[in-house]
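Archive entry. Fields below.
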Amino acid sequence: MNVIPIRSSSEIRLTVNGRPVTLEVRPEALLLDVLRDRLQLKGARRSCDMQVCGACTVLVDGAPVSACTYLAVEADGREVLTVEGLADGDRLDPLQEAFIEHGAVQCGFCTAGMLLTAKALLAEEPSPSPARVAEYLRGNLCRCTGYRKILDAILACAAPGGGTR
Amino acid sequence: MRPFAYASPRTADEIIALLTPGSAGADGASRPLAGGTDLLTLMKADVATPSRLVDIKRAGLPKGIEETPPGLVVGGLTTLAQIETHPAVRARYPALAEATAVAATAQLRNVATVAGNLLQRPRCWYFRNPRIACWLKGGDHCPARDGENQLHAILGGGPCHAVHPSDVAPALVALDADARLRGPGGERTVPVEGLFAAPEGGRRRETLVGSDELLLALRLPPADGSRSTYLKSMDRKVWAFALAGVAARLRLDGRRVAEARIVLGGVAPVPWRAHEAERALEGAEAGPAAWDRAANAALTGAAPLRHNAYKLPLARALVRRALESLAT
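PREDICTED_STRUCTURE:
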């Protein structure tokens, strides 16, 4: 059997918002801290720190994950999208436009996670029903808006033909 | 989180070597890392303190769902999200699809694996508090017994009174699934029910899976005309563990119950197979009278603690409702 390398730090190569990034990280480094403190991407936020609130949501290979409880080494070879990567230059993502238009932002603490979770849902299911959107967003808490305007904004970006479930 | 070393082997043998106490390169404090949604939470709370994590996701272990007509094989590394959305699971094994869909959040289900779900540790607040040396963590008594025990076991409790938190485990037991394990001595296959045993004596864990064994895959037998469902009662509708859950499976022959499985979650240290309820159902005519008898029989032997007697009527109602939904 080969000797298996046991590491106390590793080089990881990942793509963050479309840009290749190479970093040396310790095994216990969390993706959230690497994004915020090493890459200065402050959009994902630490709130509950236990995978309940969704404020730290980022997309890893297109799927929403809680970056607060995700090891940075696990992102090796993967694509990470944070809210900073949603806009195309100065052109906001349609979801961001819709959040502004519908007044879906109050304090803004949950917004990055909401946008990314919604982005993943619409990529997977372009025409979700209102109930499906509410169900998918269960892991994203908002203490200001009462969710109505957030749901409206997301549904405004859904392709026509969503069910009414 | 405390520092730890990290290894990402490329083969199952290498993983097992690193997990086997006393073997070359192992140190007895290695833990396998799959999705990490439970393990990392325990480590952040300083309840689990492994010196090394062995990532098991880059070694080609089974991941995903393979249709093996008339059955189904679910790789241990399959995420809950993959199971929840799989057409064959939804069509033929609804109890499993429903149990995965009501677990946690989308963010967690995208990462959490089915093997990790089965092997997750209890959510008991005494167990999860690093300052409390409860019996399960090597202490000499269970503080929940005479303490804040509203979320604790009503069946099979003692010396540990924590409940098994998994929704998926009762569903797999009700579906008569088998588990394929691999350890230093090779592979073995056991019923999923046989993975679990209430902690006792020197074994202060809820599972009979060795610390150097990998849960490779789950095999679901043909659904064979069975109907199944999983119902769960929670404090809130999101990211909550079951106050009580029930996985039920019925095979009807006309109006007669030919086969029944009733497995309770959230009420015992292990997924609780309600044998008495199954006996009350098998051969009985489908209908409210049989459902009532089964619901009462399911709680045979229940011994609630000071603050959790509410779980009895809750579990009974879930059993009744599950059976009603399967027979209509």
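CURATOR_NOTE: Chain B is about 25% helix and 20% strand.
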